[in-house]
Amino acid sequence: MEESAAETAGTVTEPVTEPAPVAEEEEDDDDDDDGLAGRFLQLEREQNALLQALPPFGEPVSHVYHPLDYAWEPHCDFVRRYCRTPKRVLFLGMNPGPFGMAQTGVPFGEAWHVREWLRVVGGVKKPPSEHPKRPVLGLACRRAEVS
């Protein structure tokens, strides 16, 4: 029997070892790929590739999380739901926090609000290097983001 999206919403699977997929690999996605959401996701993929090309941080940084790699599914669901029409928005900066976007792939989105209020679904993988005090539990995370 197939699991529904709601049943797998909080699922955390094995570590992700490569960046989020590129557009050619997502041909069977929704029609949104041609619309605003699809264009936005493509820009994010391009920016994420540039970010991945940067040299790694040195000491004292021991762990770096890339939620657009391991939490791509809920991130795409969020963008496709809420980025359908042009908006007058200016993001000056983002603080994803260990219990927000680092868990859900949704900017400033702690798991409860993302899951229950925004109704975002999708599987979240484990990052390749996870800090023992900041495990990625995906949409099942019970901690609240305070930032």
Automatic annotation (TrEMBL):
UniProt GO BP: base-excision repair
Record's keyword terms, sorted: DNA damage, DNA repair, DNA-binding, Hydrolase
Chain residue ranges for the region called Disordered: 1-37
Compositionally biased tracts (Low complexity): 11-22
GO MF, one example: single-strand selective uracil DNA N-glycosylase activity
Gene3D superfamilies: Uracil-DNA glycosylase-like domain
InterPro entries per record: SMUG1, Uracil-DNA_glycosylase-like_sf
Chain intervals with Acidic residues compositional bias: 23-35
Protein known as: SMUG1 glycosylase
